[in-house]
Design a protein that fits this description.
The structure holds two protein chains of two kinds. Chain A has eight helices and no strands. By secondary structure, chain A is mainly alpha-helical. By secondary structure, chain B is α/β, with parallel strands linked by helices. Chain B has nine helices and ten strands. Chain B has a six-stranded mixed beta sheet with strand order 6-7-8-3-9-10, with helices on both faces. Chain B has a four-stranded antiparallel beta sheet with strand order 2-1-4-5, with no helix packed on it. In chain B, a hairpin with a 2-residue loop joins strand 9 and strand 10. Chain B starts with 5 loop residues before the first strand and ends with a helix. Classes of the chains: A mainly alpha, B alpha/beta. At the A-B interface, helix 5, helix 6 and helix 8 of A face helix 2, strand 6, helix 3 and helix 5 of B.
Chain lengths: 219, 246
């Protein structure tokens, strides 16, 4: 292990680090919005849209991101829709993540006990009021663990972006290896870089899960 | 005799092929207390839930305060504001304080002002002797306290009829008293009309103006309160009372 090589590569990795961070951030936020919309459509059983959502969720959850990206990057231009690699990456991540987040939110809403809903109903509340005051607040906090797992998962999935040459962390490492043939050093930095993002985040999310759970249910 | 507040006519319910309630008929006068007794799992709770639309029924109808409610065309949301219900599992909303639990429906459903609802809620809290807990969360309360709050929450809507579904069944024995006393007080002081599903036989005997004894989804006996306990007609009721050790 040559520390000098590691040191020299740090500026490039810093660039990749920033790229990974902002792609993840945009992807995760987008995925949450898409996921929430989908799970609301399912919760309120919106006709037609609901069936479309299930097809979408199943399709994206059961195909690899790699293939989705190939589709966006190589197949869409053939059909006349050409997008930059970064756009393809973000769209891919948002829709992959959206499918998982939808399941996460839906799981939370489904987890709210039927007797809670009954007791709201017995007080004369409308379906919308039940959703707004009982199902959503409790459901959100039940879905936090699964949303947190999805967040970690999506950040790791950004490494797939390297195949369409987005200069994020993994792509940076692979490029450097290709140029200088020093795989030990570059892979070492790569692992450390992901760990720097993911370990603190993972701890933060675990803390958040507990806080939200206690705030809502007191246990 | 005055017009009954609630009349149930030929109500039947089934889950698919399996019929769980057979041709139920009874009526209740304003201020009367009815207890529904019988073995577990024979449809008492289901019947109670049919009375405020939490379960649907296939045939028959209800007449509540002169309004006919059929199986398929009921404005339950409207009716439920007049029919309070308290459940075995209390089901206070865990993410809200006691005061918020009580004021939620009056504010959101009945569109009362927050100040008005809170003032009424504090009155109710005083009534159930839990004034000090207005800003507590349900997790900080004992089972008996939760159940009294659940009753206060139902009362906040000013119902004309209260349904109690085994409200003491999951309480510690020493908590049971406080809840039963409150229900008794509602009957005696407020003349509240109530239907109570319970396994507390002593309580049922003291409070019931009418007893429905059900088995297998059918009413086997329908008598004035005292008569059921002293002079049950069917063998099934005799066996049931003998097994109830009270």
């Amino acid at each position: 292990m040559d520390w000098q090589i590691i040191q020299q590569s740090l500026p490039q990795f810093a660039q990749g680090f920033r790229e990974t961070l902002w792609l993840s951030l945009v992807g995760i936020l987008g995925a949450m919005v898409v996921g929430l919309c989908c799970s609301l459509i399912q919760y309120f059983k919106v006709p037609v849209a609901r069936q479309l959502v299930s097809v979408y969720v199943e399709l994206f959850r059961n195909t690899p991101l790699l293939i989705q990206l190939f589709f966006l990057y190589y197949a869409f231009p053939v059909m006349g829709l050409k997008m930059s690699a970064v756009t393809c990456g973000i769209i891919g991540l948002i829709f992959l993540g959206g499918a998982y987040m939808a399941e996460g939110f839906t799981g939370g809403f489904d987890g709210v006990s039927k007797t809670q809903v009954d007791s709201g109903r017995a007080l004369g509340m409308s379906n919308w009021q039940l959703a707004r005051y009982i199902v959503f607040p409790q459901g959100f906090s039940l879905s936090v663990p699964s949303l947190a797992a999805n967040i970690i998962f999506l950040i790791k999935e950004t490494s797939i972006f390297s195949v369409i040459a987005i200069p994020e962390l993994t792509n940076t490492a692979l490029d450097l290896i290709g140029l200088y043939y020093r795989s030990n050093e570059y892979l070492f930095v790569l692992v450390i870089a992901y760990a720097i993002i993911l370990i603190p985040l993972s701890l933060l999310l675990t803390w958040l899960e507990k806080r939200v759970r206690y705030g809502t249910f007191g246990d | 005799m005055a017009e009954p507040i609630l009349t149930v006519k030929n109500l039947s319910k089934s889950y698919g092929e399996q019929q769980v309630l057979h041709d139920i008929n009874f009526s209740l006068q304003k201020g009367e207390v009815m207890t529904m007794l019988g073995p577990s799992g024979i449809g008492k709770s289901t019947l109670l839930r049919c009375l405020n639309g939490l379960e649907d029924f296939q045939t028959g109808e209800l007449v509540f305060e002169g309004q006919t409610v059929k199986a398929d065309n009921a404005n339950w949301q409207q009716l439920r504001q007049k029919i309070g219900m308290v459940f075995q599992s209390y089901d206070l909303f865990p993410n809200m304080t006691v005061l918020q639990n009580i004021t939620l429906a009056p504010v959101k459903v009945q569109k009362k002002s927050k100040a008005e609802a809170e003032q009424a809620a504090r009155q109710l809290l005083k009534r159930v002797q839990l004034s000090d807990y207005a800003n507590s969360y349900p997790r900080e309360l004992s089972g008996g306290q939760k159940q009294r709050i659940a009753i206060a929450r139902a009362l906040a809507m000013h119902p004309d009829l209260m349904l109690f579904d085994e409200v003491t069944a999951s309480l510690d024995p020493e908590m049971v008293r406080s809840v039963l006393d409150l229900i008794k007080e509602l009957s005696e002081q407020d003349n509240m009309t109530m239907i109570i599903v319970t396994h507390e036989m002593n309580f049922a005997r003291q409070i019931a103006d009418q007893v429905l004894f059900l088995d297998q989804g059918t009413i086997l006996e329908q008598t004035a309160g005292k008569d059921f306990f002293t002079n049950p007609q069917t063998q099934r009721a005799k066996d049931f009372l003998a097994s109830m050790d009270f």
